[in-house]
Design goal:
binds zinc ion; single chain; 13 helices; 10 strands; 5-stranded mixed β-sheet
């Protein structure tokens, strides 16, 4: 048993046309499961050939009508033919298209609206950028060439170039507006660092964050500091996209970097940002862990440890309830009993618990002093169903930056390369990049009844 794949052109004005695309040859018997159906190699070849035939037919069709002269309205005749080599998802195709000239006035008339130097289809460009945003350029290249008959743009460097170009386009794209104006919007902003390829400056600062409305819509944004992406403009556009109006309440959360505070102010968020509870909680957690590791090898230490654990809990409660001013009381009480741990023996790997506790408490104290004006009654906000900050920001930095760009991957980034790749990553996670692949949040403006992420 063998097959020939034949492509039949239908609905033509003239005679029906058909062409044998490919012989699929004899199928081998099914004793071996590996013989079932088409192989990847066959499928790639099949796609390439079908693509070539379809493009050839399209080009033939496209060359038939004669355009009118856009200058004088006269008749045009064919001046010459141009061969366009275009990379598609299914191989490089050669498209032969005519150029026209007006008989009366000599004006040149084209027959395509895409630029003659165009070398790839938008779909291929987008897929290349999409994969590159989710995995290293080299891996993306492998995946692409493994699965598809993509003949050009095989090198990681080509993929990088295309991806960054898409990033540039995304950066310039206007915000897509959401119709419904929300009552309140929460903005969170944070900084993280990636390794710089330029040794003069070891790290690049990346500002990341998200804009969120109570109804559940979320958008992430990111930009490398001192790149061509204007972070203020970026935040503004994201606020616009979720429907900010003059009456919308915008609450911002930051980790306390003063730089971020002024960026948010420039973006029109006039209320001072609130210190993110997550950042406080993390420091308290360190203190709690250290306290629970204190040794109990002497009776005095057992009692002191109990007191300390209780005081750290109380410290947590005070800050949560907006009584950070009383934090000093807890520090005082802990200090009073700490002396019993003098000479405490350290754990082989974990170190000396009392020293760690002291360090952790110092961190909490420092944070409270530095952030005193930005601390709020978190318990009250929480009870009112409002955000108290967000572990989301930390998560945002993680999935947006670290997963693709972090230090453990031994990657070094140029300022421009990292920034533009981040624009593509944000677009993907925001669902603004076509397919649901890689997308984290439902596209804005769509109802919940309309699921967009496929299982
Ligand atoms: Zn003319």
């Amino acid at each position: 048993m063998g097959w020939v794949l034949r492509l039949v052109e239908t609905e033509t004005d003239g005679a029906e046309r058909d062409v044998d695309v490919m012989e699929l040859g004899r199928r081998r018997d099914l004793h071996d499961i590996a013989n079932l159906g088409l192989t990847l190699a066959e499928a790639k070849q099949l796609l390439t050939r079908v693509q070539q035939e379809i493009v050839a037919a399209q080009a033939r069709d496209h060359a038939v009508p004669r355009p009118g002269c856009s200058s004088c309205g006269g008749a045009c005749h064919i001046k010459d033919w141009r061969l366009h080599q275009v990379a598609t998802l299914f191989g490089v195709v050669a498209v032969r298209l005519p150029r026209f000239r007006c008989v009366s006035c000599g004006h040149n008339e084209g027959c395509i609206s895409w630029p003659s130097h165009c070398r790839s289809t938008p779909e291929l460009d987008q897929l290349r950028a999409h994969l590159s945003a989710l995995m290293p350029y080299r891996v993306a290249t492998d995946v692409l060439t493994h699965l598809l008959p993509v003949a050009s743009g095989k090198s990681p460097e080509t993929l990088r170039r295309h991806t960054l170009r898409i990033g540039e386009q995304l950066r310039a794209a206007p915000a897509d507006k959401l119709a419904a104006a929300p009552e309140s919007i929460t903005v969170t902003a944070d900084s993280t660092f990636i390794r710089n390829s330029d040794d003069a400056e070891r790290h690049l600062e990346v500002r990341v964050g998200n804009v969120e409305v109570a109804e559940g819509s979320r958008r992430v944004f990111a930009a490398v500091a001192r790149s061509d992406t204007d972070i203020v403009d970026l935040i503004r556009r994201n606020l616009e996209a979720v429907g900010r109006t003059e009456t919308t309440t915008v609450t911002a959360f930051t980790d306390g970097c003063t730089g971020l505070g002024s960026i948010l102010a420039d973006a029109g968020i006039t209320k001072p940002p609130v210190a993110d509870w997550f950042h406080i909680a993390m420091r308290l957690q360190h203190a709690k862990q250290a306290a629970s590791g204190l040794s109990t090898d002497e009776p005095g230490r057992i009692a002191a440890k109990t007191t300390i654990i209780k005081e750290v809990e109380r410290l947590h409660w005070r800050i949560w309830n907006g009584k950070a001013k009383d934090a000093q009381l807890a520090f005082e009480r802990i200090r009073k009993v700490m002396h019993v741990f003098r000479g405490e023996r350290g754990h082989r790997t974990k170190g000396v618990a009392s020293r760690k506790l002291w360090h952790a408490l110092h961190e909490v104290d420092n944070y409270l002093r530095g952030q005193s004006v930005r601390l709020v009654n978190y318990a009250e906000r929480y009870r009112a169903g409002q955000r108290v900050g967000t572990s989301v920001t930390e998560g945002t930095a993680n999935f947006l930056v670290n997963r693709r760009m972090n230090k453990s991957q031994q990657m070094r980034w140029s300022r421009r390369g990292a920034d533009l790749l981040l624009q593509v990553r944000c677009a993907i996670y925001n669902g603004a990049f076509g397919s649901g692949f890689g997308q984290l949040f439902g596209p804005l403006g769509r109802s919940r009844a309309e699921p967009t992420v496929s299982a």
